[in-house]
Amino acid sequence: MLLEEFDAKKYEKTIREEGREEGQCQATIEILQEMNQPKVFVKAKLLEKYALSEQDADELLRQFWKE
Q1: pLDDT tens-digit map of 4-16
Q2: Residue ranges of the domains in the chain?
């Protein structure tokens, strides 16, 4: 069995990219909410622009939607 060597630089790059994408999603949610767009519209945009799963989009909305 071959084990792939852990690549710390690749891991850090992946973490940064995921953080950047989450920040972009957060900004998208906040801006569209400030523009009085309904949550269903914002979710559709997240799915369209970021190719997220329904579950991931719902989680981001739970996290960043301000009631």
Answers
A1: 677 788 888 888 8
A2: 20-64
